[in-house]
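Anyone opening a protein record will find just a pair of labelled lines. A complete record is shown below as an example:
=====
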Amino acid sequence: MTTNTPADQVERHPCPKCDSPAGSPCRTGAGKVASSYHTGRFILVPALKAELSVKTPADRHPGSAWKQGAPVVQAPAPMPGAAIRIGYARCSTVGQELQSQLDALARADCTRVFSEKISSRIKERPELEKALTLAREIKTAAPHQPVILTVVEMKRLARNAAELMTLSSALQTDGIQLELLSGPLTGVYDPNGAGAIVFAVLAVAAEVEREGIREKTLEGLDTAARKGNVGGRPSVMDDDKLAVARARYAKGESVTAIAKALSIGRTTLYRHLGESA
């Protein structure tokens, strides 16, 4: 087997799919030589990216138990290139603006940005899943390439510590880093080793911040209520409408007809008639 054969070129790299080391053919789950090399392995050889399969050499006997063959000169470990950033932006409602996040991600040199207007209460966030899928695909194709998920702030990713820790676990499994562009812990974090502790701190901090905002909102509403300011939309039922509704209802007119004539909902009318009974 010469060093110019496709099989030899492929075997200069470990297989990211079956974990065969450099110099060893790809193997099945039973430990036998596979009939062709895994795609994940030979895409590391630029000249073979377009190949659909690379057959094993004749002396490897596909289907038979693996035996040590002639040593293959291992290719030097590839030097990682510049980090690839995948951006994600989110706001909760249609009325909120998203452009400031998109501008910040553009300044961070994100290769691709995914954005959506969706509440963090909704577990399924399609654009976030797309961002994670693309990051995983890049990492699989180039294991030595740093891949970073970039967000403006932590609360754009999840609503509580549990969700953030679940995301941290997924990023750790996939070898993807996380970058925060604002907040007290601005920077890039690797969810492995000491980075896992940082992720835990980030998760708790985000939940504490969320609870703080909720508490301040409730305090503000309570203070306003004591001053006579009631939040929410103004009532559609005033005293005049209620008087007309009672009179028409007493004459035997249906609730549906009364509600339509007064341009209010049947539920609202039922509630006020019940309160006045």
Summary: The beta strands are 84-91, 112-117, 147-151, 177-180, 187-189.
